Amino acid sequence: MVSFTKAVAVALVLGLSRAQPVVVGKTFLASSTDPRPGSTAWSLTSHGIAEKLFTVNQHGEVVGQVAESVNKISEFVWEVRLKEGYAFSDGTSVTASHVAECLAEMNRENPSAQSSLGAMTVTVEGDLKVRIESERPTHVMDAVLAEWAFPVYYSHESSSSSFVFTGPYAVEAFVDNDHIDLVPNEYYLFGATERPETMKVQKFADGHELADAVQNGTVDVGFHLPIDTLPALRNTDGVHVKSFEVGYHYMIHHNTLTLTDRRVREAIDVAIDRTALSQALAGGLGTRSLFPEFTPYFWDESDPHGDKAAAEALLEDAGWLLSTSSTGIRSKDGQDLAVTLVAYPHRPGLVIMQPVIAEALSRLGIVVTSVLTGDDWAETQQIIDDGAFDLLMWAQHTLPAGDPGWFLNTFFRTDGGNNHAAYSDADVDALLDALSVAETIPARVAATRDAHVAILADVPVSNLVTPEWHVGLSYRMEDYEPWGSDYYVIRADSFLTNWPPAEDEPAAESTHTSKKTTSKKDATMFIILFVVAAALAVLLGATLSYVVRRERAGEPVFTPLADQLLTDEVELPKNKDEPKTRL
To answer: What SS3 string covers 146-171?
Structure first.
């Protein structure tokens, strides 16, 4: 009876925990469920809605997600085999036709889906096999297909949302620029009945507003928190803060159309004190490397401290001289040296660093206009589209698929989809071509180093810091382990009440019908257990009430017969014809 009662209690706890919504707070939100424009596909993956053919696991390894395998046919041709039994969140089986159509569409419509391969031709080779022929070669097609720009989806006008995905959660309600309500994808390969029944992704205007929500208990998972909010959060009962090293980099893109002189760009780079920035952030590594220190692609032989004298010498050499008046402003040909420094609030670290950088540049005699954009990303995007900046502060995961090719091609190739610096260099393009065909890890490390060195030498970008990020967790989410920065926030293994399964109970890859049946059986069992538990609770309450009532009346709690039974001193007949037998 004790073990059964315990099982009932556990079932009740798990059931009630599933019924409680989990609220995930972020400073960004997918602009829609249409994955094609901008970085929406990235956001949808972060929200647990979309998946890709391949993904990167917690250990930085590229593994199959919707795809089973990929095989090279020739220099420009690959075949991808899909997993059997994979389904969209409406129950539609994933087929090669779906995959071919969405890959081709993303490649046509989103520049980030062209960064690694150029133009793609995708054809169906069978129910579960697609062939990809690319304009540019690659030797890491699995890593390419793990890039955020290649989500698996299909669309039809009959659904409430015309875009349907394969992730562990499905969209129940989408409130533009405010929140997304999610429900478990009942057709997912595992965990549908262990996931919270409702999940809300709530957008906040900035990190401080998010931290307030974590502190007052209205958010279960808060990604990510400003450093100045951490002491108060750590002193709040029921709140846990986890800090972790991320693959993100904070950097500045130099607009090479307005800052045409490399010496000026280098002077700005040299003047920035990266040690001061990491101190302002209370963590992280100040570095010029575009890749994290814990990866083989890290390279930095420079001094992270600022060098004002060296920066002044570069500006002098470029003809920007200090005014002879008391203004302390540098000018050339009657024009003051001025820059517009833009940052956005969705990454709190950028907001913290902006005034530190502005002050360092002002001390050089540069007129700095600092612009902090608003909550609506459209404002930032408009500035980028118009090229209305000289220095654009930026946060970027430089290894989202575990390989450096996507980042370098996207941001520094002449026709790169996110070439914010408007950078163009034939030699760098050739080095990126060499990286595309490097096959072994040592060869890719060496090719990355060559491109890395050439890019930093020309200064279209100034990397600043590899930061630490901080996540606030409610008491019931304290076991949540963040990884992958904020790219994989809501994952298939997140927030499950009974995961991973026992070693002798592997995760089932069941069919759609059996999933529905299993879900109904689980629901029925839970109702039965709930009724039994309620009956036991009523019985216990009645017993306690009886005991209290007799004690208050001064009456014995047990009857004389019960007292004798408890002391083993009563003799009872087995029946009226048998003699008494001592118990």
So the answer is: CCCCCECEEECCCCCCCEEECCCEEE
